[in-house]
Automatic annotation (TrEMBL):
It holds the Pfam family Hyccin. InterPro entries: Hyccin. This is Family with sequence similarity 126 member A. The gene is FAM126A. It comes from the Eukaryota. GO terms for biological process: phosphatidylinositol phosphate biosynthetic process; protein localization to plasma membrane. Belongs to the Hyccin family.
Length: 400
């Protein structure tokens, strides 16, 4: 570590201790103007045997415990690097060099699982309904959904998933290590829009290293770090994929693509269905999306292709509006010039047919004198020679 970087870190360590409580917000806003501080802190964290590592971890914990959102986000940006330092030291079976990092991570975890009154938190997550659009899907893209009784009963209902309460942890063990780390990644992902490009790059590197160490892909990636396989869980990989997805859409296309492939590679080896489902869904959605590879300092977002709202209703759907429109359409067609000319021509042909028929007058007389109608033939000579009409005429004459 250079003497200049060491001087920057030492100055940062000393100035916060003398600040009054009223000046913490102003100090937090001024941290982003110290461009040399963040790279120097990354160097301290990466050097496990540095003398500044313990005071730096203590200072970062004080930042997080202060409750100031900007100071908490300043600490969270180093979380991927801290996780990798912890996992790499644990794989090397040298826990004495990571004691301060363990204390920092456990301190953040224990602060996050309780509220301001010290009561255990219960986090809630709303699962999107397939019948309503979300940032991940459009109902019109799924296809027609059968309107069954069960579907109508569940329409508009939201499923809520709860997480917690979580137990306090005093030390890392093989059983609770990834439970704590997964929860810390959840807190990190909740503040992704505030993370810097350096932090997102560190997250992608963490994902690749954790998933390929000790496997044949490590040689393909030419990573010369530890060669011990690290145990992972499906929930931990899902949280990594969430952060990678954000990094992919916000400038880190190369690192993000490699990290996503490495996570899917490990998920296939471990047969983790949750990680495979989320990772393959994100990978498929990125094929048709134009990722922002050059704009790293622009607006933070996740790109999702949204179907226009005007095409949500199928053209074949029968609604009251479509029936009304169909009636107006038929009414308009009846008054078009072509239809009027055709109707006039049909009327002319009908008049000619009537003129060619015999002049027959049908008179319905009073039922009080004639129980049945009486037909009077006015001009029998003009009757058609049709034998059926002649027989009818004879029958009428005989009846009279």
């Amino acid at each position: 570590m250079l003497a200049m970087d060491q001087g920057v870190v030492e100055e940062w360590l000393s100035e916060f201790k003398t600040l009054p409580d009223s000046a913490i917000s102003t100090y937090a806003a001024s941290l982003k103007d110290k461009g040399a501080l963040v790279p120097a802190l990354y160097k301290v964290i990466r050097e496990n045997y540095s003398d500044l590592l313990e005071p730096v971890c203590h200072q970062l914990f004080e930042f997080y415990r202060s409750g100031e959102p900007q100071l908490q986000r300043f600490t969270l940006q180093f979380l991927p690097e801290l996780l990798w330092s912890l996992l790499s030291v644990s794989a090397a079976r040298d826990p004495h060099t990571s004691g301060c990092i363990e204390a920092l991570l456990l301190g953040i975890y224990n602060l996050e699982i309780v509220d301001k009154d010290g009561q255990s938190k219960v986090l809630s997550f709303t699962v999107p309904s397939l019948s309503k659009p979300s940032v991940y899907h459009e109902p019109s893209a799924i296809g027609s959904m059968a309107l069954t009784e069960g579907a109508l009963a569940n329409h508009g209902l939201s499923r809520v998933v709860y997480s917690g309460p979580h137990l306090q942890r005093e030390t890392f063990t093989a059983q609770n290590r990834f439970e704590v780390l997964t929860f810390l990644l959840l807190c990190y992902n909740a503040a992704l829009s505030y993370m810097t490009s350096t932090s997102l790059q560190s997250l992608c590197q963490l994902s690749s290293r954790v998933c390929i160490c000790g496997y044949p892909r490590q040689q393909m990636r030419r990573y010369k770090g530890i060669s011990t396989r690290l145990t992972v869980t499906s929930e931990f990989l899902v949280q990594l994929i969430t952060g990678i997805h954000y990094a992919l859409c916000n400038g880190e296309v190369e690192l993000g693509s490699k990290a996503l492939d490495d996570v899917l590679y490990r998920a296939q080896l471990e047969l983790f269905p949750e990680a495979l489902l989320v990772g393959n869904a994100i990978k498929s959605s990125l094929h048709s999306a134009a990722l922002k590879s050059n704009n790293k300092e622009g607006a933070r977002s996740i790109q999702v292709e949204i179907t226009p709202t005007s095409s949500r209703i199928s053209r074949n759907a029968v609604t009251s509006l479509s029936i009304r429109g169909h009636r107006w359409k038929r009414h308009g067609e009846m008054h078009t010039p072509e239809k009027s000319n055709l109707r006039c021509s049909r009327k002319a042909v009908g008049d000619q047919l009537l003129l060619s028929l015999p002049r027959v007058q049908i008179i319905l007389e009073n039922y009080s004198f004639h129980p049945t109608p009486v037909f009077h033939v006015m001009d029998p000579a003009l009757l058609s020679p049709d034998p059926r009409l002649s027989s009818m005429h004879k029958a009428f004459v005989m009846s009279r």
